Amino acid sequence: MSAVADRYAEFQALGVEVISVSVDSQFVHKVWNDTELSKMVDGGVPFHMASDGGGAIGTVYGVYSPAQGVDFRGRFLIDPDGIIQGMEILTPPVGRNVDETLRQLQAFQLVRKTGGKEVTPSGWTPGGKVLNPGPDLVANVWKFWNPKDVYGKK
Amino acid sequence: MAEEKVSCAVPASTVEGSSNEPAPAAEVKKEAVRMGVTVGMKAPDFTAPAYYKGKFTTVKLSDFAGKWVSLCFYPGDFTFV
């Protein structure tokens, strides 16, 4: 969570709020923030650290493990209408990539802004080539886009 | 006494008479109907106790309606990743 806290300003710049959730109590969240995270992030964690004791929230999101008694690493991107646009669930030993979360948020925001007239192909980053869905694009994506444009020649 | 292997998951406690063994095949169906969400669905609203900038407070997902939200679950405070 320290990585997200460290880059919170970038989330804010995109108008994105962050909520972190684990089964720990709010009291443990405080001690973790005060004794460890604040040493990695100036000013400490800037967003709500929610407590999901018992795993009720994790259960409805499908990320709670009754066997381990913890919420798995689930990350849900929720749009302004409250609809889940993206989700990723990892087991505990592998951490997330904040760059990828920010990239996906920017992509979803572009699609929303253009009302779906612009969609983002694989590996899109801000300023990158977008596609305009329509009859003319069918079987013609190759004319507009090539994976090597994004991923380079391997 | 052997030292517990340290990992990123919090070891679960066990209760006498219960079991953490994997579910037998006959129960696999249960897993398939477990609760969960997917993309395109309304995010279930919740209210939870929270720690926020030095204060104990309550956070409610629907209070952020009209904004994008990145909701991040993680296994536990003081875990390594």
TrEMBL record, chain A:
SUPFAM superfamilies: Thioredoxin-like (SSF52833). Keywords: Antioxidant, Oxidoreductase, Peroxidase, Redox-active center. InterPro entries: AhpC/TSA, Peroxiredoxin, Peroxiredoxin_AhpC-typ, Peroxiredoxin_C, Thioredoxin-like_sf, Thioredoxin_domain. GO terms for cellular component: cytosol. GO terms for biological process: cell redox homeostasis; cellular response to stress; hydrogen peroxide catabolic process; response to oxidative stress. Coiled coil: none annotated. This is Selenocysteine-containing peroxiredoxin PrxU. The gene is prxU_5.
Automatic annotation (TrEMBL), chain B:
GO terms for biological process: cell redox homeostasis; cellular response to stress; hydrogen peroxide catabolic process; response to oxidative stress. Residues 39-81 form the Alkyl hydroperoxide reductase subunit C/ Thiol specific antioxidant domain. GO terms for cellular component: cytosol. One of its GO terms (molecular function) is thioredoxin peroxidase activity. Pfam families: AhpC-TSA. Transmembrane segments: none annotated. Residues 1-27 are annotated as: Disordered. Belongs to the peroxiredoxin family. AhpC/Prx1 subfamily. PANTHER family: THIOREDOXIN PEROXIDASE, THIOREDOXIN-DEPENDENT PEROXIDE REDUCTASE, MITOCHONDRIAL. This is Alkyl hydroperoxide reductase subunit C/ Thiol specific antioxidant domain-containing protein. It comes from bioreactor metagenome.
